Amino acid sequence: MARTPKPLAPEREELLLLVAARHFAAAGYTGTSLNTVISEADWGKSSFYHYFSDKRRLHDHVVRTLAARLTQKVQAPDVKTLSATQFWPAMTELAERLHQAGQRRPETRFLGEMFHRPADRDDGALQDVRDQVDQWLRQALKRGRELGVIRNDLPYELLTELTLAVLRSLDRWAIDHKRPLAPERSIALVRSLIEQR
Questions:
Q1: Based on the number of CB atoms within 10 Å of its own CB, is 189 exposed (0-12), middle (13-18) or buried (19 or more)?
Q2: Phi and psi dihedrals of 3, rounded to 5?
Q3: CA distances from 178 to 21, 42, 113, 128, 148 (A)
Q4: 195 in helix, strand or coil?
Q5: Helices (DSSP H) in 32-155: which residue ranges?
Q6: Of 137, 145, 131, 128, the residue nearest 163 (C-alpha)
Q7: Distance separating alpha carbons of residues 169 and 186, to the nearest angstrom
């Protein structure tokens, strides 16, 4: 009969999570050595395999945990309920909350680095997070067009790709330089490109 694992001590789990997140952010899923993570987190292999069946389970646990922490602190607005006058202030407020979350929880940076790595077939839960962000952004752009605050002189797919590219560039720059633009400046830049004139 299989043993039920004892609850994992929060401080041990946190150390493993942070070490693994750092490695996954730097090297991606494929490039991360599970043995290195286990060793740096001061875990034994038998202890690790007692809680996680393999590297995939650890990776997805890290991604889901960091994403859940972020979404607990930052709720994206329900774009369907926004009016034209609320749209841009809501986007600025979202950018500000994301910025504050990154300041309060530095491990959020690891999630950002993972998010912005080139997509890989082994991304697992990370691709789910990317898809959720992409879907929300598409809904926001569509709603902005319905409200007349997003330009409609460009094909929708091109507008989406441009917006994603600018947002990714801003995030990537902030992560690489460890100093993001002020949230209102980031939104002003996006707004200058896609706002209806």
A1: middle
A2: -75, 145
A3: 17, 28, 11, 26, 35
A4: strand
A5: 34-40, 45-51, 55-73, 84-104, 108-116, 125-147
A6: 137
A7: 10
If DSSP codes are grouped into helix, strand and coil, which group holds residue 150?
A: strand
Amino acid at site 126: L
Q: What is the DSSP string of 155-180?
A: -HHHHHHHHHHHHHHHHHHHHHHT-P
* Partners of 195 in beta bridges: 150
**pTM (2 decimals)?**
0.85
What's the pLDDT tens digit per position in 147-184? 999 999 999 999 999 998 898 888 888 877 777 778 88
- Taking the CA atoms of the chain, what radius of gyration do you get in angstroms? 19
